[in-house]
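Researcher: Next sequence.
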Amino acid sequence: MPDFADFARLHPDIEMEILSSGELANLTNREADVAIRVVYDRKTLPLNLHGLKGPELFGGVYMSRDRLAASPAGAPDPIRWIVISIHGIPDWAREVRTAGVPFRTTDAEAQIVAVRQGIGMTTLPCFVGDADPLLVRVPGTDLHMYGTLWLLTQGETRKTKRVRLFTEFISRRLAAYAPLLAGLSMSRD
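Model: Next structure:
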């Protein structure tokens, strides 16, 4: 994914702080200059934000490569869902055959560790699941579109040099990763 170190090397005169969080930064309150968000419906974007549309983000159902290999005839046996407690099992993935109650985690990192250890299967963005050599897509499952990535800024902030340069850089980098974000690239790079 975008290498912020490249931006920092190209623009050593621009102060930059990257905050990675599942929480939404309030751009109106200046909690951030730029936000990269998955937007499910463009109509829900606040009118005071300026957006640069990025690539579409897809997800799939993943399990441990070892767990799949250990399944009879390569077909996945019924296993548990691994879910982040606050999210649960997405409606689009409910047709996948499972057994038992979901294994619940508190965050994405624990979710990925659990699926790597073969506890069950989970939904992940393709750029996460496809890039992990220990994971594989569950055979017979389809991809699901999560939404579109947007680079968002507020008001006049978008015109400042640092924000303009950063959004142009990140926009180009995200475009280069569009196949991976869409689940079309099974690359392990």
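Model: The chain has a mean pLDDT of 84. The chain has six helices and seven strands.
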